[in-house]
Each structure stands twice: as C-alpha cells, then as structure tokens.
Amino acid sequence: MSLDDSHKSNIVGIQTTFLELSQMLEGLSFATNKSPTFEVVCAKNEIYKGRLFSPDQCNQLKRMSEHHAYQNQIDCSWHGMPCKNIPGYIDTIENNFWQLFAELYLQYPGLRNIEFESDQEPHLVKYSVNGVTNGGHLHKDTEHKSITVNLLLSNENDFGGGGTYIKAIDKVIKLKQGEFLVHPGNLEHAGADITFGVRHLLVAFLDCEWDETKIDNMSIN
Questions:
Q1: Average pLDDT for consecutive 10-residue bins of the chain (221 residues)?
Q2: % helix / strand / coil in the chain, to the nearest 5?
Q3: Is the pTM of this model over 0.85?
Q4: CA distances for 166 relative to 42, 74, 159, 194, 221, angstroms
C-alpha cells in the first residue's frame, strides 16, 4: 500500500476519513508490530505520547537524512529538512503514519479529517550544540485547531538536556528513541536546549477538521 501517485512526490492534500483509513489499513503489513499505544501526559490539555518506530528504524532514518545531506553538500549543521527531499524516505515511513493517523482518530473526540499542513510535512529537525540551534523559543505552531507530532529519532543518551517544554503544564517532556509526543498545535511549547551531542526529530504539523459538537471539552478551541 502506498500513497496515491499524484501525491507521493509531495504528499500535499492527504485527506482521510476514519472509514477510508479503516479500508486502507485492512491487510497492511506494518513495519511496527502493533498500533501505537497512547500514554496520557495530560488529559486536560490533550497531550499524549507513545511509540511508533523501533531504535533500528530510527537509526536507519537518521542515516538516510545524513547521507542525503552529505551527497548534496548540505552543511552538517543543518537544522530543518523536508522528508520529501530525501529519496525513499516517505516510502519508508508512510505505513507508520497511516497507523498513527488511525490512532489519532480514536484518541481525539470529534476528529473528522487529517491532512499535512503543507508540502513541507513531515519534516526533520536537528538540534546540536555547535549547529544552527540547540533549542527553540516558546511558540505556538498554529492558532487554529491542529495537532503536532514530535518523534525522537536519536538515542536519548546521544545528547544532554533536550525534550519539549509545554507551558500549560510547566513541564519538559522527554522521550526515548522511537517515541512520539502529540499535542494541540496551539499550546505554547519550546524545544529545551541540549547541552551536548545531537538531537534528531521527525516532526509533522497536521491540519484537522473537527466535529464542533464533540469537542467542547478539548483544549483546542
């Protein structure tokens, strides 16, 4: 199973409904052994985490991005890179993302439709002490109803510090390799500074359509 050919090059306008996803997922053989299980970080603010990739898969994805940077003479201190720019990257991760999308429909009440925010999604982010940046400022990804996914590709021992600070709960959330953090895009957050090493992330900004009658208790409003 792969994305429609008209969208594969840039994954623009990928829109799915729960019924369509159920049909697409039927009979698929995923790289992961089971659907991601969501662990509640803060129910009130709809913040969750879980696992999507194995450590070996994460290492493969890191090698693909760094090989692409080397082949194209991109400075090793690069900070951001669209996944679509890396040959084979989307094909490698797309089944995992279908799997994640299916779980998001179940996790978020009233979620009716998901699409990537732009043709730059998903994208990679790299923080390093001697790179472009070693952290991030406090910000919102969107002002509207959306979902942000941050997934740690690095081994958690490859860097010091790091994690995602979320203002609403005044807490830094740290992940293990292959784990993701999901939160509403309009929650203020920041990438905590790293103190040594390199921190690789796979990030996706998701535009969402909601059934307004079912999200009265959600933080995304």
A1: 41 44 41 73 95 94 94 86 94 92 91 93 90 72 90 96 95 96 94 92 95 59 42
A2: 25, 30, 45
A3: no
A4: 11, 31, 20, 16, 17
- How far apart (Å, rounded) are the C-alpha atoms in residues 131 and 121? 22
166: CB partners within 8 A, 6+ apart: 42, 45, 47, 172, 173, 183, 187, 188, 189
How many CB atoms neighbour CB 5 within 10 A? 7
DSSP code, position 66: H
What is the rounded CA–CA span in Å between residue 172 and residue 165?
4
Asked if 152 contacts 199 with a C-beta cutoff of 8 angstroms, the reply is: yes
Q: Which residue bears the tokens 């929650």?
A: 187
SS3 60: helix
Q: Are 14 and 21 in contact (CB under 8 A)?
A: no
Phi/psi at 71 (5° precision) = -65, -30
Between helices 89-107 and 18-25, what is the axis angle to 10°? 130
